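The instructor's notes for this session suggest beginning with a concrete chain rather than abstract definitions. Hand out the sequence below and ask the class to guess, before any prediction is shown, which regions might be ordered.
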Amino acid sequence: MPATIPKCNKGECCSKGLYQEIPINTWDELQALYCRERKDWSKRWVFRGQKSSTWCLTTTLERTFLKRLGYPSLIEAREWENLLLRQFKRNAPRLLNQPPRNEDYMEWLALMRHYGAPTRLFDWTYSFWVALYLAIESVEVTGTCAVWALDIDWWKDCVKERMPVLKEILKKGSNTPKEFNFILNRKDKPGIWPVNPFRLNERLYAQQGIFVLPIDVTKPFMENLRALVRQNQGADHLCKIVITCDRDLLTSCLTELHRMNINSATLFPGLDGLARNLENQIFMPQLFTDVPDKESDLR
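After discussion, reveal the predicted structure:
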């Protein structure tokens, strides 16, 4: 039978101690949470917003294989990752002003992800508020969304303890071709690892983005996470903030984030982001107080 993406229920898609849950119902509770955790979160935590609190942490490559194609596992994911990358590298240069060099593997993968191709690269951000916006941007009133918070340096240390060779590679700097080649070709030890290409594309820059990838691409992201820790070890270093939405909360969040200059127009530069932002501006009628009353006045 085709595999399906599991809902994120503790004890089903992962161990109960892998992460903690924090319920949120109001904007004031969100602010209080941020003020309480800000000191720790400033130490290289990364965040991901998801419009449904029931969604598991899954990459686009994982969702393509397990959900859309109905494959029973990810055993062929490594081969397909290489095939898709080769196809993209052959065809994209005619559409790019400055294509990456052929050997810049990570930059090609980042471009693929930027334009919607399935990859193992998983989008996160250094900004809690950007993640919050991405969580609530299209959530339904009465829906529940989630912001995941990940202590990335702690998880990196777990990986380095399992892979001593990586410690030696990192002595010569991070985000290097040697590091990328080592991480992307591992299949013996699962784990997760943060990466970014040397050249940031427009959205990565605007969203303060970073990619976190599963080291063993033949296993789900959650399984790569779970392999790094024993029972209950991860709960202090990974949390899911579950936000129960109503009109008041969405209005407060969207208004305050707009004042921070965080909205679809700024996070997705271009006409698509500008148009995408209009729907959420309906929650902020004060933005339209200077609009003429009569249509004829607009001409």
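Then share the key points. Residues 20-284 form one domain. The chain has a mean pLDDT of 88.
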